[in-house]
Amino acid sequence: MNNDPFPVISPPNESEQNSDVQAVLLAAGMSSRFGEKNKLVQSINGGLVIRQAAKTLLAADLSTTVVLGHDADRIREVLSDLSVSFRVNNEYETGQGTSVKIGTQTAVQSEADAVIIALGDMPNVSVSSVQALIATYECHSRSALASAYMGQRGNPVLFDRKHFDSLTEQQGDTGGRSILFETGDTALVETDDPGVVYDINTPSDIIG
Prior knowledge:
The chain has 208 residues and is α/β, with parallel strands linked by helices. Helices cover 26% and strands 23% of the residues.
């Protein structure tokens, strides 16, 4: 059930990716609710959480920037064989907003049309869900899109370049959530993918 004030739309059946959409993968958090271990380097479904998240974006053919912070050297090492770039957020303890800011700056510098912001602790998002965001962006006049499962808002999210200034001004722990609610053309994209609402916060969330 959709409790947000946004319409839920289905992605088009077919679409050619003509826009320059880039990805930002947030991997700077301290995993405080997980305990002493870093949840991003725990094993799930035969791989590490952060690697699964990164490989999904790469499989969707997206230029991907990983924003590092807590445990930066370790995260960089486990992703070293993947074709991603890295940015370091030295203010990661202040909240997710600063990581969104740093990641979006890369999209601004490369003059991307839009940016997809994904979370490093969401390893089960399917490639088709990422592609659905892009296809919907290209076929509908929507500048802000969030993935959804059965009408429930999830991640990743996509923002058109018109929101880059706002994204690079983010502070605190809201990330881009406030922009979704402030934008008049936000929509949820139904993905039929439970992975878009499954994230890892505690050890009990590790399944598979």
